[in-house]
Design a protein that fits this description.
With 884 residues, this protein is of the alpha+beta class. It is built from 14 helices and 47 strands. Helix 4 packs parallel to helix 5. The radius of gyration is 30 Å and the shape is globular. The relative contact order is 0.08. The N terminus is likely disordered.
Length: 884
């Protein structure tokens, strides 16, 4: 179906070789888009990519040459299962008439079989348009007249042919169901007699499935990659086609005979059979020069290359795997590699001098995206139940949320921020980079094609009765644990119309298993390919803090740490490198101290002290280290209050991924008061999109947080200590909302910014319908000032359609106990922070159960529900820096 391919275009990079489809089998289904193919290379995990064709010439075949010409369904009429049907085509009489005498009945029904009838829109060789009638006789086949695709007078074939299913009053239900024909089989070209021409005045056209080439693990050899690129892309792609190549694996550097760079090295892609030896020597790597030639050889300019690998670091950083292999001047390219380059120079009629000049100017053509700067790490991150490249997962998840293709700068900017945020959580820096060499635009759409589809979190991949299997490629990394059981999705059409409910029962990595619940409103059985959107997430009541054990500990110390941590409630000790962890309990060694000092870190803990690191071991958790030579037992005991604070942060992070999926219409801007400028904005994408095709700030539909529009080193806004800031919140709903604002600093401590006049009760937090409020406003007695500690902080803005009464009571209790005056930010200690986080979940759970209960759906015990229709949780990250 058309929607299937549009979703594939948006989601062409995947953590496994899965296809996101929308095969709802509605009668107005479209067809497969034009395609040729693509390659994904991955020596670790399954990732896919593809090539789609744009404006390639139609292929015409006579029925005599159609090799059997089998009819779909063995000649039986096409009838999608369990669709609402109608006996008459004019279910709404009087809505449309005809001018003059006409004995035909107008087709007004949106139900099958009438919905299988549609308009054939064609364009002749001179670009003039015309239209005919066609009928959908299979999911990807339309039957029409030959004179609708061939001019009987001139015998010229139409240049382009489209099918618009179920056109009524010149409108289709969903514009994304309009599809373009690829192959046409005709009964006559009007060269025979008049009688035979009329008898054979028919044509059938359809679309080929997407052709995706994937090389995994043992197949991703040097020769396998080169052969696939040549045969699948170079030999098949035509001018105007779009080619996507995605590499997810190791990168390296080897000697460059031409010395393009000052260090005399050339970057490489490392195949599975590289032949690497620690002492140096010849390797079978694919050089960047070779990739340049392959891209240059493509017959289309619409080329997108994504490289999720890097060239610095080493194999490991704490709990992370670095996507690079040690390289340098002691490694040389193979004679096969250099010979292969010479062969291509000859085929392309390029002299060695021309080749050097071209590659030193820019990439060969199209768009090239690197997951990190050359001196940064591209990492493979253990997530909740699986591993994935930080950049690949961020890009994949971002594309699942988009309803249309966006410009390369926009996508890489947005994905760069999410990648940077994910890297920040793990304690390292990763900023994706992009290069463009396109004759048409310096900022083209990232995949050189357009689409219009629904945002989604999951897709149905298999159906057995009412049991469904899901692929959860659109889930935010921070919220994965909220999608293990009791989470609820709605099944949607491409126009975001809800058609049913799926309740999740289990999850293994990104594969989910659930049950389809058909509400009593006449929905049909769910089909494989149906896309799903989040409705309720199920946050476990007993979320745990996962603490990794420093692999620098000796065996005795490891066991002591494990035993000490196991007796703490809701803390789980784990070994490094095997699964997701949140922090590492370890020692500040001499080598680590020197490294931190070299990187100009200040206020470092003393050598020999115990404390907490972020998962990469590249950053420390502030105020978590003790004195030198502290025993492991004493260190764990000292850190118990800190664990509570970090657990509270973990709970909050299960909520804040909601801004992609919330259906509330509310926007937030964080601004610098003195400079009178916006620092960052955030909005619930779907809530805003349901109101407008563009959000309030003039951004293209699909953005979540707008801070910058292009790729930059400052992916997270930097704010100097001493700056005054404020939040402006606008309620675009037709009902009041209740607002809360929390700020979590770099040390994991929380301050309650709003509400801060607890004596007023619920009224303090209310923002009326269609109203706007600045917190604090200019007349307020308190100001918000940026203060230490230095590092990345996160502002969490919570908007709810119901009051959060338990949370307000918890805040009031703290303020009363500590004698905090009104209209003052309320700091919390570790116990307070955890209590407020739990109270917040209790409030949100009550709202979710009340709402979903009205639809006769139950949320089981052991989880806290969060309803996207009733809550918007928006996060704005920023870095506190020294005042200049």
């Amino acid at each position: 179906m058309m929607t299937q391919v549009l979703n594939q275009i948006r989601n062409q990079i995947r953590n496994q070789a899965m296809t996101k489809m929308n095969a709802n089998k509605k009668a107005i289904a479209g067809f497969m888009l034009l395609s040729i193919g693509a390659i994904a290379i991955n020596t670790w995990h399954g990732v896919n990519a593809q090539t789609t064709t744009q404006k390639t010439a139609l292929k015409y075949t006579s029925s005599q040459n159609a090799k059997g010409f089998p009819l779909p369904g063995k000649g039986k009429a096409f009838q999608p299962s369990k669709l609402p049907q109608a006996n008459k085509p004019d279910e709404i009489p009087g809505k449309r008439g005809v001018i003059g005498w006409d004995d035909r009945t107008p087709m007004l029904s949106r139900r099958y079989p009438w919905s299988a009838i549609g308009r054939v829109q064609g364009f002749d060789t001179e670009g003039k348009g015309y239209h005919c009638t066609g009928t959908l006789i299979s999911e990807d086949v339309v039957l029409t007249n030959a004179h609708c695709v061939i001019n009987p007078k001139t015998r010229q074939f139409s240049k382009e042919v489209y099918f618009l299913p179920n056109v009524i009053n010149r409108e289709v239900v969903d514009k994304s169901d309009v599809v373009r024909a690829k192959n046409i089989i005709y009964g006559t070209d009007f060269s025979g007699s008049e009688l035979s021409s009329q008898r054979n005045d028919w044509a059938r056209f359809g679309f080929n499935p997407q052709d995706i080439k994937i090389l995994l693990d043992g197949d991703a050899t040097r020769q396998g990659i080169l052969t696939a690129f040549e045969q699948h892309l170079i030999d098949r792609a035509k001018p105007g086609d779009t080619v996507v190549f995605h590499f997810s694996g190791h990168g390296s550097r080897i000697q460059d005979p031409d010395k393009d760079e000052p260090d005399g090295l050339n970057s490489t892609l490392v195949p599975i059979d590289s032949g690497y030896k620690a002492g140096g020597g010849v390797v079978q790597d694919i050089m960047g020069h070779t990739l340049f030639l392959l891209m240059y050889a493509l017959k289309t300019d619409n080329v997108t290359v994504v490289l999720d690998s890097c060239y610095s670091g080493g194999a490991k950083r704490g709990n992370l795997t670095v996507r690079s292999r040690n390289g340098g001047k002691k490694y040389q390219p193979s004679t096969d590699e250099l010979s292969y380059q010479k062969q291509w120079l000859k085929r392309l009629n390029l002299s060695p001098q021309e080749f050097i000049k071209l590659r030193r100017q820019n990439i060969a053509k199209g768009v090239a995206i690197a997951s990190a700067k050359s001196e940064q790490l591209a990492t493979d991150v253990p997530l909740n139940g699986f591993h994935a490249g930080a950049f690949t997962y961020s890009l994949t998840q971002y594309l699942w949320q988009q309803t249309s293709n966006l410009s390369v700068d926009r996508i890489v900017g947005d994905v760069g921020r999410s990648t940077s945020n994910l890297a920040n959580i793990h304690g390292y820096i990763q900023n994706p980079q992009v290069n463009v060499n396109n004759r048409v635009s310096s900022n083209p759409p990232i995949f050189f094609t357009s689409f219009n589809t629904s945002a989604a979190e999951a897709v149905v991949t298999n159906v057995r009765g009412d049991i469904v299997e899901l692929w959860l490629g659109g889930i935010d990394t921070r919220t994965l644990e909220a999608f293990e059981r009791e989470a609820i999705f709605v099944t949607v059409t491409n126009g975001d119309r809800e058609t049913g409910i799926v309740k999740l029962e289990s999850r293994d990595g990104l594969v989910g298993r659930g049950k389809f619940i058909a509400p009593a409103r006449g929905n049909s059985q769910i089909q494989a390919g149906t896309i799903l959107q989040e409705r309720i997430r199920g946050i476990p009541q007993n979320l745990k803090l996962k603490i990794g054990l420093d692999d620098g500990f000796d065996g005795n110390s490891l066991e002591q740490a494990r035993q000490a941590l196991q007796i703490i409630g809701r803390v789980t000790p784990l070994s490094l490198g095997k699964q997701e962890i949140h922090y590492v309990f370890g020692s500040m060694t001499e080598s680590r101290y020197r490294k931190f000092l070299k990187n100009r870190r200040k206020n470092l803990p003393v050598v020999g002290s115990l404390g907490l690191f972020l998962p990469s071991l590249e950053e420390i958790v502030l105020d978590s280290f003790g004195t030198a030579n502290e025993s492991i037992g004493d260190g764990v005991k000292r850190l118990q209050p800190k664990f509570k604070s970090l657990l509270a942060t973990r709970i909050v992070r299960e909520i804040i991924g909601n801004n992609n999926t919330s259906l509330l219409k509310v926007t937030v801007a964080m601004g610098n008061v003195k400079e009178n400028r916006i620092i960052a904005r955030a909005l619930p994408t779907r809530g805003i999109l349901k109101q407008n095709s563009q959000n309030n700030y003039g951004e293209t539909a699909g953005s979540t947080t707008k801070t910058i529009s292009t790729v930059s080193d400052d992916l997270i806004p930097k704010i100097q200590v001493g700056s005054l800031f404020a939040f402006t919140i606008e309620n675009q709903e037709s009902v009041p909302i209740y607002v809360s604002i929390l700020v979590i600093d770099a040390g994991g401590n929380m301050n309650i910014i709003f509400p801060n006049n607890w004596s007023v009760g619920d009224e303090e937090a209310i923002l009326p319908a269609k109203a706007k409020r600045t917190i604090p406003d200019r007349d307020s007695s308190f100001k918000l000032e940026i203060s230490e500690p230095f590092g990345v902080e996160e502002a969490l803005i919570i908007a709810s359609t119901s009051p959060l009464r338990n949370t307000l009571k918890a805040i009031e209790k703290i303020a009363t106990r500590d004698n905090i005056s009104r209209e003052t930010p309320i700091p919390t200690n570790n116990d307070d922070f955890l209590n407020i986080s739990e109270s917040l979940l209790v409030d949100l759970d009550a709202i979710a159960r009340r709402e979903i209960g009205e639809e006769r759906i139950q949320i089981g015990t052991g989880v806290r529900g969060v309803d996207v229709k009733k809550l918007a949780a928006m996060a704005i990250g920023f870095e506190v820096v020294v005042q200049v």
